C-alpha cells in the first residue's frame, strides 16, 4: 500500500516556494509602508500552501478507503479563498473620504493564490503569479503615480513646482 503522505523534500520545496514568493510580494508592500507587509504575505502564502497540502493528504488517504469519507478538494480551496478574502478586506479602510488599502488587500489575495499553486505543486504557476503581481504593483503603480496622476493635477501643482 502506498503512503498518501508527501515526501519531506516535496513539502519543504512547496512551502519554501510559497514563503519565498510571499516574501517578494510582502517586501514591495513593506517598502511602501503599507499595513500588510513581509510577514503577512509570507504567512498567507505559507498557510494557503499548507491547507492545500493537508487537503490533498486527506483526499489521497481516503481514496483507497470508504468512499463516503472522500472530500472535495475544491472546498478546501474555497475555504482558503474565503479566509484570505477576510484578511484582505481588513486592509481596506475608508479614511478622509477616500478608500485606501485596495492594492494591499489584492496582494494578500494573490499571496493566497501563490500559496495554493505552490501547495498543489504547480511551482511554475506560483512563479508566474508572483512575477505578474510584482509587475502590476510596482511597475504599473509607478506609472499610475507618475504619469496618470500628473495628468490630473493642474500644471502648477505638480510636485510643488510653480508655473
Automatic annotation (TrEMBL):
Location in or out of the cell: Cell inner membrane; Cell membrane
Its membrane topology: Multi-pass membrane protein
MgtC/SapB/SrpB/YhiD N-terminal domain segment(s): 15-145
GO cellular component, one term: plasma membrane
Pfam family, one: MgtC
InterPro entries the UniProt entry points to: MgtC/SapB/SrpB/YhiD_fam, MgtC_SapB_SrpB_YhiD_N
Lineage: superkingdom: Bacteria
Record-given protein name: Protein MgtC
Originating organism: Marinobacter segnicrescens
